[in-house]
Design brief:
One of its GO terms (molecular function) is cysteine-type deubiquitinase activity. The strands form two sheets. Strands 1, 2, 3, 5 and 6 form a five-stranded antiparallel beta sheet that branches. A two-stranded parallel sheet has the order 4-7. 14% of the residues lie in helices and 43% in strands. It has one domain. It is mainly beta and 99 residues long. The model has no long low-confidence stretch (mean pLDDT 90).
């Protein structure tokens, strides 16, 4: 493997896992490389109170509910499912892009 300095320092690896809420069968995507995480900034209910970067990252990594949008191969129909991103390798320097 011919890794560059950028790969060694900034590249991470993640995988998405989707689990059918009806039958519990999970499917995983192939491992994906990333060089930064695009993390949405959480809105705050109170004026002048800011959400921490840690809280934004934690919320970003929570499972996302897919309402009747996931075609389950076992159920052979559209089902509710939960999809989450698993960080398999966090690089030595993690670049976070807040949006």
């Amino acid at each position: 493997v011919n890794n560059t300095l950028v790969d060694d320092v900034f590249r991470g690896t993640c995988r998405f896992e989707t689990t059918c809420s009806n039958c519990g069968v999970s499917s995983k995507t192939p491992d994906e490389k990333f060089y930064d995480l695009l993390v949405p900034i959480l809105s705050s209910d109170e004026k002048g109170v800011y959400t921490s970067v840690d809280e934004c990252i934690s919320a970003h990594l929570l499972p996302e509910v897919l309402d009747d949008k996931y075609h389950c191969s076992k159920c052979n129909s559209l089902q509710e499912a939960k999809r989450r991103m698993n960080l398999l390798h966090i690089p030595p320097i993690l670049s976070i892009q807040l949006s």
